[in-house]
Structure formats: C-alpha cells, structure tokens
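Suppose a colleague, Dr. K., hands you the sequence of a protein chain of 174 amino acids and asks what its three-dimensional shape might be. Before reaching for any lab equipment, you can write down a predicted structure in token form. Begin with the sequence itself:
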Amino acid sequence: MAEIGIPRRWHTREDSGLVLDRNLDWYHDGERITHPRIIEAFNTGLVPTEDGRFQLHIGNDWAYVTVAEAAYRVIAVDHDDRQVYLRLSDRSGEALDPATLILGSDGVLTARVKQGRALARFSRDAQFALGGLLNREGESVFVKLPGRRIPVPLPPELVEEERGERPLPKGPTP
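The predicted structure, expressed as tokens, is then:
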C-alpha cells in the first residue's frame, strides 16, 4: 500500500513517528529528513513540555517528538561584559547557565536550556568560541569576561594555566 502513497501506518499526536536523534538529525519512521526548509521548520517548532517531553508545533497543528538526547544545537556563543549568551537552532537565544555545562565522553559540550527543560549540544564553532573565553587558575576553570569571572564545572586539564588560549577539544562533529 505504501507504493501508491497510502501510509503504512496511521500516526497520531502521541505516536508521530518523528525522532530527533543524538546528532540532531530528524527522522520520520526511520527515514532521515534532509530537506533544509523542513529541518528549519522542525527546529523552530520544537517545544519542551512541562512533563519532560517535546512537541513539534507547525501552525495550529502539533505532535509529540521522540528526542534521543539534546533537543537543540548551540550554533553560536556571544557575550557582553558580564554574561555569555547561546544562540540556539530554534532561532532563540538565552543566557548560559554555566553550572549546567557538561563535557561528554565524545568531547562535545552540552548545557541545559529552556529553563532547564532541555539539553543543547554545542556545534564545533560554538564550542571553539566558548573555549576562547575559558581560563584556568590551579584546579579552577572559569569564563573570563571584562566585568566578571564565571566558574564552570569543567576539567582543568582542558585549559592551559594562566593564558587560557587552548580551546576545548573539537571532538566529532556535533
């Protein structure tokens, strides 16, 4: 039946067949979605719910999505004199909560976003930009901004003592 355009199974809002995998690639019924405009619509329509799940909103319609790990990609890092800001794949931005930074076993940073309801995975460029702001004193790592030092819970061996010029490892493509 699928050969003539009739779906193999019917989907509901609870069982949409949509998955956002660990690498932030979209799938429907196991088939990767590759069209850039669909990906953009899905990225901007993804919303965390109060119960820890995720919904995809497009216009007036919505459905639940299975999110394997991170729901958003940090595509850029900005800062002012006192705060670091993350630009996310849903075209939103928010202040970094440095206490939520975690370096994964694959060498890629993640942080909690959306009031702590979602995980965001850093792109290579965003991770490199944040690495340029890191400094180390002894066993402490911190973000050094013109008007503030912000401690971060990262291993001190990631940053050279005093100068802090070595960025975080790039790891695989997030």
